[in-house]
Design brief:
This protein is 24% helix and 30% strand. It is of the alpha+beta class.
Length: 115
């Protein structure tokens, strides 16, 4: 006696060959543990004044590189300034909003260093 099976549709057939993840979220948890957690560093008064001076030189549409603290690590971002809000103390680089207090360094062609 021959058993006849109906054809499986393409989508269900493809599902049976997908990799099986027995521990959902395990890879993400391991990747998070591998990150080196860095404490946020406090700037000295001189560094704060220098950073404040640099922030006052920045204008909308300038291209700058900013080093800042985000999600327990320091990140470097280069892009066009979309917003400098002195009252709210927020710097916008394209679609990223950065609090002034999280910034540790700014670089750009329009920023003049003190000698």
């Amino acid at each position: 006696m021959e058993i006849k099976r109906c054809k499986m549709d393409r989508q269900n057939r493809a599902k049976q060959f997908m990799p099986f993840d027995a521990l959902k979220g395990f890879r993400e948890a391991v990747a998070e543990k591998e990150k080196i957690i860095v404490p946020k560093r406090d700037l000295s008064e001189e560094e704060k004044e220098e950073l404040d001076r640099k922030l006052r030189q920045i204008e909308k549409k300038d291209i700058i590189t900013v080093d800042f603290f985000q999600n327990r690590e320091y990140v470097q971002l280069t892009g066009m300034v979309s917003r400098v809000d002195i009252t709210s103390r927020i710097l916008g680089i394209v679609n990223t909003k950065i609090a002034f207090d999280d910034i540790i360094n700014l670089q750009g062609d329009m920023i003049h260093e003190l000698i």
